[in-house]
């Protein structure tokens, strides 16, 4: 795990990750739950740096069933989803706490919204800088280099 930047704190059987534990990925995503033979197995929760989480049942590292909850408490539903549809365009925080007074617009579900560095774009897990082609997290720590159009199989025409 030293090579991958991950770390584990929890039970082991014959040196393998097994039992209850906390597995932290280099992205600061944490799995807290049951492990078997070095894999997520049983009941466990993935906690994402954004504050969202996925609670589920795992079988040999594969999520079998579960639910995703956004950082603001909104639970994702794959059927009968009534959030941000054609009839009601309010953000979830506006549904829970009411609309802001006239003249105070809420531009994102976060209030106040994130401050995006000049020339960058918010890409969901951090900021993308098109000049450097680098994505950093919201604390300005390196996440990844952005791929080129050619590296993802897209043909570029002159």
How would you summarize this macromolecular structure in one to three sentences?
With 158 residues, this protein is mostly beta strands.
Structure overview:
With about 160 residues, the chain is mainly β. Among the domains are: about 5-70, no CATH class; about 115-158, no CATH class. The protein is built from one helix and ten strands, in the order ββββββαββββ. Strand 1 (about 5-15) and strand 2 form a beta hairpin. The longest helix is centred in the middle third of the chain and has 6 residues, at about 90-95. Mean pLDDT is about 85; it is low at about 150-158.
Shape descriptor: flat
Number of strands: 10
Tell me the span between the first and last alpha carbons: 45 Å
How much strand content do the residues show?
35-45%
Q: How confident overall, as mean pLDDT?
A: 83
- Which residues sit in consecutive blocks of at least 5 with pLDDT less than 50? 149-158
What class would the helix/strand composition place it in? mainly beta
Main beta-sheet strand count, sense and barrel state = 6 strands, antiparallel
Q: Helix count, per DSSP?
A: 1
What portion of residues is helical? under 10%
- How would you write the strand order of the largest sheet? 1-2-3-4-5-6
**What is the N-to-C succession of helices and strands?**
EEEEEEHEEEE
Oligomeric assembly: single chain
Radius of gyration: 20 Å
Fold topology:
Elements (H helix, E strand, L loop, with lengths): L6 E7 L2 E9 L5 E7 L2 E9 L5 E7 L2 E8 L22 H6 L23 E2 L4 E3 L4 E3 L5 E4 L13
Antiparallel strand pairs: 1-2, 2-3, 3-4, 4-5, 5-6, 7-8, 8-9, 9-10
């Amino acid at each position: 795990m030293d090579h991958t930047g991950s770390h584990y704190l929890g039970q082991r059987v014959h040196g393998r990750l097994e039992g209850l534990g906390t597995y932290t990925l280099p992205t600061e995503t944490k799995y807290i739950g049951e492990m078997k033979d070095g894999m997520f197995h049983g009941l466990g929760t993935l906690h994402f740096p954004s504050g969202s989480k996925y609670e589920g049942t795992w079988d040999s590292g594969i999520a079998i069933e579960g639910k995703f909850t956004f950082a603001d408490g909104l639970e994702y539903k794959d059927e009968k989803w009534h959030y941000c549809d054609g009839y009601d365009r309010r953000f979830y925080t506006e549904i829970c706490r009411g609309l802001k007074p006239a003249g105070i617009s809420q531009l994102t579900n976060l209030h106040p919204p994130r401050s995006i560095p000049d020339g960058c774009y918010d890409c969901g897990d951090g900021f993308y800088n098109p000049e450097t082609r680098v994505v950093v997290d919201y604390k300005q720590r390196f996440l990844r280099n952005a791929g080129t159009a050619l590296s993802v199989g897209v043909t570029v025409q002159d």
